[in-house]
Specification:
Blueprint (H helix, E strand, L loop, with lengths): L1 H22 L12 E6 L1 H24 L3 H27 L2 E6 L2 E4 L6 E3 L3 E9 L2 E8 L2 H5 L4 H12 L5 E4 L3 E2 L2 H11 L10
Antiparallel strand pairs: 1-2, 1-8, 2-3, 3-4, 5-6, 6-7
Helix pairs in contact: 2-3
């Protein structure tokens, strides 16, 4: 019995050491079978974005009621619609949580978009685009027609417009997610050597 107990203790200690090694310096658990990084919706961050959306929708409502011109009232109505819809999305995501997208050795797959899995072999480069202090992970495809054939014609036109503006064909936002942009870039550098990535700063 003493021998069995000691063996069980040693096995548990070894497993604990192994898990600690997998955590590494980033504090993110790695899958021993495949490098994989999941980006989860943070309820706390989603609530913060919900409050911002509600505040902006409220500002639009004020313009609808007190706007000096028809243009002001029209813009206010558009803000109410846009940020009201955003608030509903944030509320739903805060309640449901879940995974927004996944990076692994095969590529990046989105849980929200019809584009599905984007293999690293199809990505020429990725870059960081900042719009109004919000950072996006921008992807430029080697053969955009092949990848974008999965999505609607409206999204294809938007993708080519974005690329013409220097924003890449497809972008991922990390607002309200854990982990964040820096972990994604580090993962791509380590697991997608054929993709051009901004240097680590």
């Amino acid at each position: 019995m003493i021998v069995v107990a000691r063996m069980a203790w040693f096995r548990g200690f070894a497993v604990g050491r192994d898990q600690a090694d997998k955590l590494g310096s980033t504090g993110i658990m790695a899958d021993s079978r495949m490098n994989r990084l999941e980006f989860h919706r943070s309820p706390a961050k989603q609530i913060g974005l919900l409050l911002i959306s509600l505040a902006l929708a409220g500002g639009g409502g004020y313009e609808v009621v007190r706007g000096d011109s028809a243009t002001d009232r029209m813009m206010g109505g558009a803000a109410v619609l846009l940020f009201g819809m955003s608030a509903l999305v944030r509320l739903k995501r805060a309640m449901q949580g879940g995974v927004a997208f996944v990076l692994d050795s095969g590529g990046i797959s989105s849980q929200d978009d019809a584009i599905g899995l984007i293999p690293w072999s199809e990505v020429e480069r990725c870059s960081v685009v900042t719009i109004k202090r919000t950072r996006f992970l921008s992807l430029t495809f080697r053969d955009p027609d092949r990848i974008l054939s999965r999505v609607s014609s409206t999204k294809r036109k938007l993708a080519f417009f974005n690329e013409s503006m220097g924003w890449g064909h497809w972008a991922f936002s990390f607002a309200g997610l854990d982990p964040g942009m820096d972990e994604a870039l580090r993962f791509i550098r380590q697991n997608a050597p054929g993709v051009s990535v901004p240097p680590e700063t």
